[in-house]
Design brief:
By secondary structure, this protein is α/β, with parallel strands linked by helices. The protein is built from 15 helices and nine strands. The strands form two sheets. Strands 2-1-3-4-5 form a five-stranded parallel β-sheet, with helices on both faces. A four-stranded parallel β-sheet has the order 7-6-8-9, with helices on both faces. Strand 4, helix 7 and strand 5 form a beta-alpha-beta unit. Helix 4 packs antiparallel against helix 11 and helix 11 runs parallel beside helix 15. The mean pLDDT is about 95.
Amino acid sequence: MARETAEVPHVAAPLCAGSGDVARVAGELARRDFPLVVVCGRGSSGHAGVFLRYLIETRLGLPVSASAPSVVTGYARPPRVAGALFVVVSQSGRSPDLVAATEAARDGGALTLALVNDAASPAACASDLVLPIGAGPERAVAATKTVVNSLVASAALAAAWSGDRALAEGLAALPDRLERALGLDWSAWTADLAAAPAAFVTGRGHGLGTVREIALKLAETLRLPALGYSAAELRHGPRASVSAATPVLALRQADPVAEGIDRLAQDLRQDGVRVHACGGPAGTLPWLGDGHPACDPIAMLVPAYRAIEREARRRGLDPDAPAGLTKVTETL
């Protein structure tokens, strides 16, 4: 996990520069009209799908729905997706339920696109279009560089498809920011989790996929129950479970939802909750300063991954092979 996190800047660079595969897929999408987009993925790939949803809805104005593969594999009810774009996001491309959902979408008349690390995988073979994320072999069970590259590929595709030059420029600057992010020390946050019965991660908008991904890494690597919530959601029902015993990590990118995250961090601190914040005036964790608001949530994964991996080893846990887990966990 440590080695693969360290590889992130290098493996992300080609996608950040705008690969030929990105241009090819974006060109094909730009020639078509879609009534909606359906995104399919589980676990870390599902979190990348949340990020892609925000990119598509904010840049292209298309509604995006999350697919439930069990509707196909468990209930045998293929959805009506004729004319839609169906995007499957998968690190391995071998999860049976994701492959089945992709095949059903293609049979139902959707244009299918696979964002995968293995361009020869079953999910890729079931798709009309393939965008390889090019992260290289990943051996640790806790995915790191494949997650980052799934987000980078999503951003690169959205930039090329929508013609968003500012996002393309943000991506061009991202490899250097990822390299610098490797040197950020977020151990103050993970050390604060030592006696915690649970942990919370919060953010909004483009950062929501990252929020959920970090919560997953806490659960699978530190064996700590962790929940990732939108800052808007955390103010409601989940707020009842947040206390001084449950530290909160707040991630904030500089965009229109930033003010709400700042206010939440302030309110939680006033109530005695320990908040570790990245970005903005309430920031307590080392950060690079504001970059492009759709790219910063990608860079924030790097110091979080490093801190979690080091904390796991400090506790005598193996972050590369957590007990009871294997690399491909998605099943029918």
